[in-house]
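step 4 of 6: structure.
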Amino acid sequence: MTTILEMRDITKTFPGVKALSNVNLSVEEGEIHAVVGENGAGKSTLMKVLSGVYPSGTYDGQIIFQGQECQFKGIHDSEHKGIVIIHQELALVPMLSIAENIFLGNERARYGVIDWDANEARTAALLKKVGLKEDPKTLITNIGVGKQQLVEIAKALSKDVKLLILDEPTASLSEKDSQALLDLLLEFKRQGMTSILISHKLNEINRVADKVTVIRDGRTIETLAKKDISEDRIITSMVGRSLDDRYPPREPDIGEVVFEVKNWSVYHPLHAERQVIKGIDIHVRKGEVVGIAGLMGAGRTEFAMSLFGRSYGRRITGEVLMMGKPVDVSTVSKAVQHGIAYVTEDRKTYGLNLIDHIKHNITLANLGGVSRHSVIDDMRELAVANDYRKKTNIRASSVYQMTGNLSGGNQQKVVLSKWLFADPEVLILDEPTRGIDVGAKYEIYTIIARLASEGKAIVVISSEMPELLGITDRIYVMNEGRMVGEMPAADASQEKIMRAIVRGEGKAA
Amino acid sequence: MSTETAPAPQGNAAEDQRPRIAVSALTTNLREYGLIIALIVIMLFFQFTTSGTLFKPVNLSNLVQQNSFIIVMALGMLLVIVSGYIDLSVGSVAGFIGALAANMMVIWQLGPLSNPLVVSIVCLIAGGLIGAAQGYWIAYHRIPSFIVTLAGMLIFRGICQALLGGGSSVGPLPDGFKALSSGFIPDVIGPLTLIPPTVNAAGKTILGSGLTLHMTTVVLGLIAVLAYAYFGVRTRRKRERHGYEAEPFTLFVIKTLVASALALFLVYEFASYRGLPVVLLVMGVLISLFVFVTKRMTIGRRIYAMGGNAKAAQLSGINTERLTLMVFINMGVLSALGGLIIAARLGQAVPAAGLGSELDVIAAVFIGGASAMGGVGQVIGAVVGGFIMGVMNNGMSIMGVNVDWQQVVKGLVLLGAVIFDVYNKNKA
């Protein structure tokens, strides 16, 4: 095997921060090379150096690709060499078709006139390669995230790619779509393509990677060969300490039923005849952590948001009971008054005001708690913000730091703080650890455990089954708008959950 | 001026490695200070190029009276823009309200209802209703504000012209009404003559000679300055009592002294002419109110949150629809007040009243540092932005700069201010 890429002693400094110091990365032709590290460790910076986002001259060190030293001035240069990066945030234009997106900026054209037949024929061939059964004319906005990811890959293939870099490709994919994507990577490998995979999901790395390079605090820690790869080993070198247990220990102290939902039904906001939630019953006890498992598109987020002030859907029917009494949750503020809080899965879009600082974000859902006669008490607000900053361990220079400048884990802690300050009885957490690193995940789990021990009722929606198995007391399984299973976490396993989903699927069809 | 300086907790042994925030507060407020400094520089520039005319008491009074309507409307526009919307109709609404007021007072025989005070109240309510009508479509039907208010701009300009019977004007308006714009507060204390005016050979006093102070203005000015200093000290004390470090004491003293000196200079200027213009008093009260609402009240906080991320605000229990409606009602009322001020200054309603002023108002808000994306902007910024536009209008007019070129200069200043902002933001 030959070395296709060699990055030597890469050092990149930003004003005041050394993002990378003497990082080395060596990738063999035809392998899948995983790069792992906590958020902020420098993975993305390294990839930006490689792809020319940071042009040559703004960093120190050498990049040798296919035996040649390269000095990329921009993405164009690196793509020309066959290095293509697919970013975590997809860069597709929603109102254009698949074919238009794939050939955007690279259209088959003569004298500026696009040959649509050629584009679409080529697109169809590419889609077949990535296993996507869609018409090239379909608009991006009409296909799901999983399929969009495949379109991105097809787009990369259209550029005659030699080295494919995927930055957290499965972060927003369901288990099923993730599996399909990983299979596709393995298929590419068989065809001789080299890929670099940046991921937080260690089980995926375990499955597909030939080598793993661990980066911590802007330094290369080690590169592990296939036979040495194990989750524990990776975690240890990622965080620089051994996390004996990935989930904090907890002694459940479960009381009476606090929160109950009966026969909840919701219709799609746009397609009036489509029923998204089909008569769901759940209950949560005091001090209990309940999980909701399911695949992407099972309707879990839709269910939670429709409960929370009818923030999703139409023609909502059913009953919500707090402490056995029916309550009105028809608006968000009523739901909050009755002690319900919903922590969104998408903190940037639905959770935070990114252009305001931590203090203002924390008090937003409970301004009454820091004001008198609608006049905000500055000092009390500051005290509250500092208090929650300490409680949830938000790492920031002060509570006056913009939330947009925080890392994912710290942003999540701000959103959590906001809802903790609203002092709810029931806390619904939607994908609380999505896209955050191992260390921050542990902190979030600790907060969840502490809240449960304080007697809150907690619902955790998660696509990561090990997480549900690790932190919950009881697990509901949801599929296609129905609850298809319920089991104590002690008896549950990934296989059992999957079986419930598959059985449920059979029933629904 | 902003008193929101970021204090840092003291004596918090475990956590106290963070940088001294008081210093960074200076840089975060740099934009605001920079703007005020820019205004002062521009004023000094024109003071020089107009050979001292700009700061003449009579000219300062004129300047305030000419530009007050822009600043009044800019207060409403700030909230609209911070919320993430725009309102293009304010100039037309102001024109329409002026025409309505003139008709009520001069043409239609309404008996006691023609009283200027009654007319003004009716007009403010009418403005609120117009704002509600536009805000309703924007808030509850999600029609883009640009389109709704563009329609409003056409509609109300049309009604304004129709009310005035085509191209004619309606007037003269009663003196009681005109006092809103051209009046001065009465001197209840009585004037104080420091230097008696020169009397010429014919036994007549020479206008503008001598020095007589309008004592009510002086007293009001002193009260305002003392109140400013008192509240500044009180906020500091409160911060210290709660164990938070306020900004450095010297900085605080310098800031307070400079602001007070400027204020006293203006007080002296007005007092040596005819006293405080009524419209300046109205403006001052409104500015203080809006600073308080945006900085200290929950509704202000909610507006910023809505403009910063409407979906997150909604999911935090904020009724964004109602809030949007209220922002537009407020804009309508202030547009109406702007219309009344214009009509009172001209002494009549004309079809072109307020024409194009929406652009000056929007420019003032953007020069003042508001973001077109919403969520960012300060009341003081918008006010200073309004004054920058006003001083440039006034100064260039005195200098005899052609009106066409005045527009070019204003356009360049707007572009420059926003580029400066974006550049600063990217650097940070």
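step 5 of 6: annotate
 - The radius of gyration of chain B is 23 Å.
 - Strands of chain B lie at 8-9, 192-195, 211-213, 244-245.
step 6 of 6: archive
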